[in-house]
Specification:
Blueprint (H helix, E strand, L loop, with lengths): L4 H28 L3 E2 L9 H4 L4 H7 L1 E7 L2 E6 L5 H12 L3 E6 L2 H10 L19 H10 L1
Parallel strand pairs: 1-4, 3-4
Antiparallel strand pairs: 2-3
Amino acid sequence: MPNGPAVKRSLHTIDDVARDMEEKAVERKAKNNNLQYLNLYGFPMNPETVGMIPQAEAEKARAIIFNEIKRVLQIGTTDPTSKEFQKLIEALKEKKYAARIFLISDSSFQEGLDVYKRVRKADTREKFIRIEISDQELKSSTAEI
């Protein structure tokens, strides 16, 4: 069986073709249902915006918040009619956010989930401690060095 760059290139091309077909199908579905469509592949997403909802919640709702402009959240979802997505929208409305909804493909949703790897977690933030050293302790330590 052939191996090397040519095989990798053709596998990459097959993946590209499959993804392109998926995106075109979702775009047609959006158009047929009077929905906005967006392909998130390569789209610049801010990890802080994506992280406005926990990843587990995003996975349940199959939704990615990919942009915010003046309290209007741009949200991509694979299923805008799902119960979990509707719960998410209601929770955001309670927090005084408006939503602009886009239909996205499963691949685009996966792209959005990958951004969570760059979301800064609250429990992993740097922690600072204060250390107090008297003048005598500092002089003593300096003398030893």
